[in-house]
Write a structure and sequence with these properties.
By secondary structure, the protein is mainly alpha-helical. The chain contains 8 helices and no strands. Keywords: Cell inner membrane, Cell membrane, Membrane, Transmembrane, Transmembrane helix, Transport.
Length: about 180
């Protein structure tokens, strides 16, 4: 069940990351065309940067599911199989701890309970907490940065799901044909 949920979520993450990669290409091409015509669209740069950040976090989370994240294997390559398995479990546990800390940090950063205590009044929340996450707009797009930064929630939740799945024995599908 956990492995299946992880696999489905990883496919969603990779699909979204691929769409974002295509959008980045189109945004850069749009930027080149509009600048060469002397009518630059300044918001395009910012949107391309945010799309790149989202693509990166979604891809990193999916990489955990597929077992394709960057790793240094100098030590584990020389270990016997039982020790390799133990080290792999330890790595999954460390990643799980990191992901859970990310959830905790996002919880503290977004402070949803404090916002609710202030009746979802952003100004009252800001005055009491000096947390301006819900009010700060992006430079050129004009949307709230809280929406842009919400990728941190998605990354943390995806990494938690994938590391739990890996920790409890689900073998990731590497996508390689035998």
């Amino acid at each position: 069940m956990l492995g299946k949920a992880s696999a489905i979520w990883a496919r969603v993450e990779l699909t979204c990351a691929a769409l974002l990669a295509a959008s980045i290409t189109l945004l850069i091409l749009l930027n080149v065309v509009t600048r060469s015509m002397g009518a630059a669209l300044y918001w395009v740069d910012e949107l391309a940067i945010y799309a790149m950040a989202w693509m990166t976090f979604l891809g990193a989370s999916a990489a955990l599911h597929y077992g394709k994240s960057v790793s240094v294997t100098v030590l584990t390559d020389i270990l016997p199989e039982p020790a390799k398995s133990l080290v792999a479990k330890l790595v999954h546990l460390i990643v799980l701890c990191f992901a859970l800390f990310m959830i905790w940090f996002c919880w503290r950063w977004y402070a949803p309970l404090d916002l609710a205590r202030h009746g979802f009044d952003v100004k009252a929340f800001q005055g009491a907490s000096f947390n301006f996450i819900y009010a700060e707009p992006t430079t050129t797009l004009g949307i709230k940065k809280a929406w842009v930064w919400s990728i941190m929630w998605l990354f943390a939740l995806g990494a938690t799901l994938h590391s739990l799945s890996n920790l409890f024995g689900y073998e990731p599908d590497t996508g390689e044909v035998e």
